[in-house]
Amino acid sequence: MCDMLDEGGKESLVVAVCREASDKSPRAFWAFRRLGYLQVRQNKWSEAVQSLQHAIRGYPNCADLWEALGLAYQRLGMFTAAIKSYGRAIELEDSRVFALVESGNILLMLGSFRKGVEQFRLALDISPQSVSAHYGLASGLLGLSKECINLGAFRWGASLLEEASKLAKGSTCLAGNLSCIWKLHGDIQLTYAKCFPWMEEGQSLEIDEEAFKTSILSWKRTCCLAAISASRSYQRALHLAPCQANIYTDIAITSDLICTLKESYERDLNAWQLPEKMSLGGLLLEGDNSEFWVALGCLSGHNALKQHAFIRGLQLDVSLAVAWAYLGKLYRKEGEKQLARQAFDCSRSIDPSLALPWAGMSADTHAREPTQDEPFESCLRAVQILPLAEFQIGLAKLSMLSGHLSSSQVFGAIQQAVQRAPYYPESHNLNGLVCEARFDYGSAAAAYRLARCAISTLAGTVPKSCFRDISINLARSLSRAGNALDAVQECEDLEKEGLLDVEGLQIYAISLWQLGKNKLALSVARNLVIAVSTEERTSGAGAITFFCRLLYYISGQESAITNILKMPKELFQSSKVSFIVSAIHALDRSDQLESVVSSSRQFLASYEDITGMHLLIALTKLIKHGSGQCLNFQSGVDHLRKALHMYPNSNLLRNLLGYLLLSCKEWEDTHIATRCCIIDPSDCSSEEGLKLSCEILAAGAVACYATDNGNQKFSFPTCRDQCLNGPMAIPQLQKWLLREPWNHNARYLLILNFLQKAREERFPRHLCIVLERLLRVALSNQFYSKKDMSYQYQKFQLLLCASEISLQSGDTISSINYAKDASVLLLPNGYLFFAHLLLCRAYAVEHNFVNLQEEYLSCLELKTDYHIGWICLKLMESQYKLETESNILKLSSEEYLKEIRSSRNMWMAVFDLVQGLISLWNRNFLHAEESLAQACSLVGAESCLFLCHGAICMELARQQCSSQFLSLAIKSLTKVQETSLFPLPVVSALLAQAEGSLGFKAKWERNLRLEWFSWPPEMRPAELFFQMHLLARQSKVGSDSSSSSRVESWQSRQRWVLRAIHLNPSCLRYWNVLQKLMD
Q1: How far apart are the C-alpha atoms of 9 and 717, rounded to whole Å?
Q2: Residues 396, 451: contact at Cβ < 8 Å?
Q3: Residue 589: how many CB atoms within 10 A of its CB?
Q4: Which stretches of 175-302 are DSSP H helices?
Q5: Residue 986, φ and ψ in degrees, nearest 5
Q6: DSSP, res 198
Q7: CB < 8 Å & 24+ apart, contacts of 375-382
Q8: Are 672 and 704 in contact (CB under 8 A)?
Q9: Residues forming beta bridges with residue 630, ordered by sequence position
Q10: Of residues 320, 280, 282, the one with CA closest to residue 300
Q11: Which sign does the torsion angle of CA 37, 41, 47, 50 carry?
Q12: Orientation angle between helical segments 290-299 and 245-261, nearest 10 degrees
């Protein structure tokens, strides 16, 4: 009947019938379905949702119902529900073009361009002639490209726009009379013209100026053609829809871009320009559109018209942030800084996500000389919001003043600025400075050459000072890169043109010295000193210090001292000269400059100069109080400790003190070194001193001999001198590496700290995986291919770490390969010893005793100055019964012990401990007791030694039934209780057993109670609960008024035994006692 009524065009009757049927029966799904379709046709979206939801219960697999429900949700603004409904329709019938297109449109509306593009591609696969799918896919690619552009991925964004342009152009063939398609094509072409990057074609452009100029012209031509194509598309769209006011503005923007890209363009201020005319055309149609007034202000070349347009836009909409921003830019250009600041503040308060106010604020705060980081942070915010080349160049300039030139943010920004503004010499010059700050001198030199090429394309418009600065930068980078010959040539060219200044002369002299032309280098340096007039000698102290340093390197110490003594005394009033004189004095054993140094230090006034001089004095004492090739670390440490009492907040002194304490290699100095450092959580790279504070903290955490793990299931602390800041090292290093992912020192120290953590936790699998990944990245770095000793040592440590992790993971083949790679590096024998020691361990795991014996002999042949190496080798010898022709291992270890000074007793005690452990393995308890007693006599405060001695004495007392050994055990275990930093488990139990064996009942009870509290609650063993049962039985026999407060009275004897059985059900003794208690 409904079909008949529908065919007759009686839609209202159909609705009435369906409503009546649905009201009478909730299971009339056919009625709900037809009613839902009719309500969708009538745009009754809310009612349609209810009807379609009821209908879907009866027809859950009907794709039409899900599609109609999605449309209803979409019209109601319920986009998430609409996407789900469209998705269900597509699942049921994958050829639903409408559902794919509409879900794609919703995703584009929500900003999910990538997912929207996927939907439109599926729609096009089904229906290649669908105009909606073509239009949607082109729009999605445009949105996705803008995301890429905002992230700085210009090349990727341009490739997406190329595809989008082809799609939009194809759509015009399908429906060429739709203005929206032509406008979309214009938007794509305009965005392409604005984002298309200039790409260097290898390094050939760095020298060939003609090729550079050709590449710039080609890039401009590409951008100009895209802008012209955009203008034509906008004109076609305007022809189809002449009342669309926004198209006039689009044409105006495109025309302005074309004029900018054309080199022959000259603006006539007395005539209306095309961009201005087109903007006025849009205003004629919509005069109350505030955004059109802002566009007119941006495109106009007349400041008065600009101001009028911005103010008119604000009259129409006072909360228009972009109008305030451009008005502030205009006021700043005209010198009205107060008005500019107010306008920028208004814009930023209205819309903090706008880039221009932040950039304007950075320029304003820089002019007012605030803190150095404030303008940099403001400009960085602007760059992060909008990666505009002008903002990025400004960020690089500000980073030079704030010390952030080597940061990853500045590096990324200036790289993008080069791609978008290659014709600016400044962008290439700043790129070179950033590369130079990151020690990439080859790339810096290439950038400076490109900067000079850019100057040649702007002939007559760039001052000579700019060319001079870039050429000096180029010479400096070439000299630092080791290309002294080219650096000399650059300096000579500048000298011919009369542009060689003080800095250029310094670079010239250094480059000549690098080439071995010492006489000529000194001549240039003397000319540099002469170039500084008498009135400027105080300000030219840098030239004097440079001459002294160069003279020291070329002619030696005596010649430098002789020249310094001839200098006028007023020169020594400069802090720079004072520092260089003090440095030379530090190396002079005869103290010829003592009077000069003492008088020059009186003129130091600033905090930085005074603390820096204290650092130099400490280094002087380090050298002068040393003997032979050994430095006197203690004298330097003593001076720094005194200086820190006067300047406790000096990171410079703190870092040097920590570094010296680590270099001392003394037993108790490691934990003090880490306490010296003040960690700056914001930026490790801002730390001062020879080493960064996070480096000292990380090195101290690795060098600490006492494991300081917060989880007691791995260890119990016994050492008083612990690296308490050790757990902070890994998080600090991770933050450092996150800020500077190129920093090999950060990655190297992070690997070592993770290895220490893995060793403490018995090499869990997750830490091994982390270490494997870090090591893979570190060892693939070409940085370690350098032959320098420090680089080879780091590579050696990384290979040993990789070998250790492979060994702990069961991969002995990889472990052996890594250790062999480490053993062939060009390092001293004392280091290579440990590679062969690791090979010994790997061959032992494989039961390859032939190779084990060979590597053992290699270790004896190489020898080492590190005590831990001999200890490990001694343990290997004992465990695997390794033999040599002579007792060379014992002699070598004893010889090394004689060389140890302040920590000699400690290391002798450790060797005695090892001898005791070996005797214990061999079941020779008497010899083990003698060795451990000797160790305890050498070090009186090491609880672990006394614990081992007490345990051995207890075993001897059991074997020989001797009260003498019980007395020795009691003495040692009591010493453990007195010296332990924290109560150690097992100690009180052993002591209770010894005291009880001698009949001291009260001491037996007291020590058992102490044992209970020395264990963490979750780690208490079964035997401890059983001992509480014995203590409860004894307390019951001699009960008194205070017994109820003791630990054994907390539970019944039967309950104590049950707890012990629960923890160790396999112990028959517990079951027997429980049976007696039950009986």
Answers
A1: 91
A2: no
A3: 8
A4: 179-195, 209-240, 245-261, 274-285, 290-299
A5: 80, -30
A6: P
A7: 375/401, 375/402, 376/401, 376/402, 376/404, 380/409, 381/355, 382/355, 382/356, 382/358
A8: no
A9: 627
A10: 280
A11: positive
A12: 20
Residue spans of alpha helices (H) in 556-684: 557-566, 575-586, 594-600, 607-624, 633-646, 651-664, 669-676
Judge contact between 267 and 273, C-beta under 8 A: yes
Which segments in the chain show pLDDT lower than 50? 5, 201-206, 534-535, 682-689, 706-710, 714, 886, 1041
Residues in the chain: 1079
C-alpha radius of gyration, the chain, whole number: 41
| Coil/strand/helix, residue 542 | helix
Q: Using alpha carbons, select from 967, 869, 875, 960 the residue that is nearest to residue 913.
A: 875
Specify the 3-state DSSP secondary structure of 627. Answer: strand
- Each residue of 275-308: b (16+ CB within 10 Å) or e? bbebbbbbbeebeebbbbbbbbbbbbeeeeebbe
Residue with tokens 């080798």: 873
Tell me how many degrees the CA angle 489-491-496 measures, rounded to the nearest 5.
Answer: 95
Tokens of 757: 């953590």
Q: Are 548 and 580 in contact (CB under 8 A)?
A: yes
The reported pLDDT for the residue numbered 688 is 44
Q: What burial letters (b/e) apply to 675-684, b meaning 16+ CB within 10 Å?
A: bbbebeeebb
Sign of CA dihedral 335, 336, 337, 342: negative
CA-nearest of 810, 874, 801 to 838 is 801
**Structure confidence at residue 615 (pLDDT):** 87
- The helix (H) or strand (E) run that includes residue 314 is helix 303-316
Contact present, 559 and 589 (Cβ < 8 Å): no
Report the distance separating Cα 99 and Cα 107, nearest Å: 12
Q: Decide if 502 contacts 543 (C-beta within 8 A).
A: yes
Q: So what's the pLDDT on residue 818?
A: 94
φ and ψ at residue 630, rounded to 5 degrees: -100, 135
For residue 668, which of 718, 750, 707, 723 has the smallest C-alpha distance? 723
Place of tokens 């347009």: 309
CB 835 within 8 A of CB 847: no
**Phi and psi at residue 627, in whole multiples of 5°?**
-130, 125
Spatial CA neighbour of 733 closest among 715, 764, 757: 757
How far, in Å, CA of 776 to CA of 768, rounded? 12
Here the tokens at position 722 are 């612990």
Residue 889 is predicted with a pLDDT of 52
The answer for residues whose C-beta is within 8 angstroms of residue 472's C-beta and 6 or more apart is: 494, 501, 503, 504, 507
Query: Look-up: residue for tokens 């399908």?
Result: 174
Report whether 760 contacts 709 (CB < 8 A). yes
Position 707 scores a pLDDT of 45
CA 290 to chain centre: 44
pLDDT at 363: 74
Distance between CA atoms of 794 and 154, rounded to whole angstroms? 38
Q: What is the DSSP letter of 1064?
A: -
Distance CA 669, CA 471 (A): 49
Residue 776 backbone dihedrals phi, psi, to 5 degrees: -60, -40
The answer to whether 126 and 100 are in contact (CB under 8 A) is yes
Q: What does the H/E/C string look like for 940-999? A: CCCHHHHHHHHHHHHHHHHHHCCHHHHHHHHHHHHHHHHHCCCCCCCHHHHHHHHHHHCC
Which H, E and C letters describe 440-491, residue by residue? CHHHHHHHHHHHHHHHHHCCCCCCHHHHHHHHHHHHHHHHHCCCHHHHHHHH
Which residues lie closer than 8 Å to 161 by C-beta, 6 or more apart? 141, 142, 145, 188, 191, 192, 195
